[in-house]
UniProtKB/TrEMBL annotation:
CDD domains: PBP1_methylthioribose_binding-like
Predominant localisation class: other
Name of the molecule in the record: Sugar ABC transporter substrate-binding protein
Subcellular location: Cell envelope
Family according to the record: Belongs to the bacterial solute-binding protein 2 family.
Lineage: Bacteria, Bacillati, Bacillota, Bacilli, Bacillales
PANTHER family: ABC TRANSPORTER PERIPLASMIC-BINDING PROTEIN YPHF (PTHR30036:SF7), D-XYLOSE-BINDING PERIPLASMIC PROTEIN (PTHR30036)
Keywords of the record: Signal
Source domain of life: Bacteria
GO cellular component: outer membrane-bounded periplasmic space
Organism annotation: Cohnella nanjingensis
Amino acid sequence: MKKHSRIGTWLALAIALVLALSACGNKPSGNAGASPSESSSASPSASASAPAAGADNPLKGKNIALIMRLNTGTFSAQYVDGVKKQVEKFGGKLTVIPSDNKLDVMASNLDAAVNQKYDGILLDHGDAGALTAGVQKALAAKIPVVAFDSGITAEGVTSIAQNDQKMAEQTLEALAADAGGKGSIVKIWVAGFPPMESRQIAYKAFQDKYKDIKQLAAFGTADGAQLDAQTRTEAILKQYPEKGSITAIWAAWDEFAKGAANAIKQAGRDEIKVYGIDLSDEDLAMIQDPSSPWIASAAVDPASIGQVQVRYLYQKIHGDDTPATVQLDSVYVSRDALPTDKKVTTADLSEYVKGWGASDQGVTDYLTELEQAVAGQ
């Protein structure tokens, strides 16, 4: 009897040991050692919320295409710099694709960008007739598009523009005031660009308002704009050699203003004043030069234009609803407002001209967090 009892005891112990080991082996390994907050009990709503702006933020690492109709002059250079720096602040990469002032080439570049599956597309100085079909392809491919000065009204696109009529009005009204409401002027302008067409509307209103200001000539081309403006201004000066025969030149683009100013200065016709539109550091240096005939311009900070355009593109990438149009207000910059004892650049122009400088348009909390996360890497 004692022998059977010992066997029963050992058998009971063995069964208990097996059951204990089995219980240990059935414990879920994924939660081993995990605290409640680290377990897989997160709610669906938490996983669906927007992720924090950390290293895994889905807005980082985007490939952005900037398709430009033309990329000439210092205004364009500063605009591109603004675009590039803002994309980099968001942790993305920018590819600039110029089109040599050919709309058919720009349309082809847009199609190629869609086929290459860029994460977002920026357009600069395009045309609705040439680009709308390509824009529709981009939207169908779920690639967001934000255009600058392109006149595109396709649903789903945000179009950013300077207040071109206001800029023209600012410079033309200053010209009329300085001339005493009478005189003879030359217009340098080119058709076929949405901002130029808007500026022309203001010019026609100016002509209607100031009947005693006569137009002597009008010309301009986008190809080799500065050199062409200089050459043709030289010809106009020879055609009207008497001092006082030309009161002023109104240039609807800073590249035109530079060419005209060079021709006037070389000819010694210091009685002729130049009024321009758009502004860069190079332009400011000429306006500050007391020997230059270029005395004023109306403009929006080109770098801030690029920054604002990128912000709205990233809002679209994020899935936000964005406005169909965004308008950027201009300021009037004259030589009288600038110091005579130091050189001014667009970076410090806000110290002397109210309303100039970096814009906060398009900024959101999550884009600010994204910038901070990228900067902190």
